[in-house]
UniProtKB/TrEMBL annotation:
Species assigned in the record: Plantactinospora solaniradicis
Disordered as annotated region, ranges: 1-21
Xref: Pfam families: DUF397
DUF397 domain mapped to chain residues: 6-60
Name of the molecule in the record: DUF397 domain-containing protein
Length: 62
């Protein structure tokens, strides 16, 4: 998985008080990365862009 050039952004649901935070890098063409903002050098979940869009759409519709 190639994440060179990934621009990470924190979830808009993050409260800024050290709670559970997720960061997403969705600026790449081949992959969307998801990681724990408290462990930026830790593991990254990788999704195909189409699968990520489907996930986000399903979450928004709940």
């Amino acid at each position: 998985m190639e994440l060179t050039g990934a621009v990470w952004r924190k979830s808009s649901r993050s409260n800024g008080h050290g709670g559970d935070c997720v960061e997403v890098a969705d600026n790449l063409t081949e992959v969307v990365g998801v990681r724990d903002s408290k462990d930026p050098t830790g593991p990254v979940l990788a999704f195909e862009p189409g699968a990520w869009r489907s996930f986000v759409r399903a979450v928004k519709n709940r």
